[in-house]
Amino acid sequence: DDAEDVNSMENVMLEYAAMDRELNNYMKAIEETVSKIKQEKPENFPDLKSLVKEKFTELESKNSDSDLQRNEKYLYFKDQLKEMRKQCDMQCDNDNEAIEQIDEDIAVTQSQMNFICPITQVEMKRPVRNKICGHSYEEDAILKIIQTRKKQKKKVRCPKIGCSHVDVKESDLVPDEALKRAIDSQNKQ
């Protein structure tokens, strides 16, 4: 299922790259048309819309799918994906160790961990982890959002940017003891 999600995200990024390329071509067509018009005499002004469309069509005809693979935002996405896989592999290795080893592991990896709540944007004091998507939040902050949205009869989307989980429930939240120990450990240093 993770591979399916990654493929889906990759397809979205390729669609984004295509839209980005199209927009850039359109902007270039306008710039080149305006530049060309500036050299003409005022009485020779042609139909600007058709000139831009003609130039845009010319630029678009030079496109290829390999262009999309070289889009800087797509390449950045691929780099981020590689980095996430590396971190996930490291995390999986750490999870196989005994519970007594966790505090030492946290000391080694805490520079990679995020102690900031995605809601409050401050360091968490009582972190809770969502069992469904795995993201952590400050307990009071997420509970307040859940209660507010419940009154409005609306679902709560996970506040972590990029998460697709759209129905966070209080029953899905568990204290994140490992994260709490990591935060406490860092604050002692």
Describe this structure in words.
By secondary structure, the protein is mostly helical. It folds into 2 domains: 2-89, no CATH class; 127-187, Zinc/RING finger domain, C3HC4 (zinc finger) (Herpes Virus-1). It is built from 7 helices and 3 strands. It has a 3-stranded antiparallel β-sheet with strand order 2-1-3. A hairpin with a 5-residue loop joins strand 1 (127-130) and strand 2 (136-138). Helix 1 crosses helix 2 (48-61), helix 1 (2-38) packs antiparallel against helix 4 and helix 5 packs across helix 7. The longest helix is centred in the first third of the chain and has 37 residues, at 2-38. The chain is elongated. The two termini are 40 Å apart. Mean pLDDT is 81; it is low at 108-112.
Number of helices: 7
How many distinct beta strands?
A: 3
Average of pLDDT? 81
Q: Structural class of the secondary structure composition?
A: mainly alpha
Rounded to an integer, what's the Rg over CA atoms? 25 Å
What portion of residues belong to β-strands? 5-15%
Order of helices and strands: HHHHHEEHEH
Order of the strands making up the biggest sheet: 2-1-3
Distance between the termini: 40 Å
The tally of structural domains comes to 2
What is the overall shape? elongated
| Sheet with most strands | 3 strands, antiparallel
* Uncertain residue segments: 108-112
Q: Classify the helix fraction into a percent range.
A: 55-70%
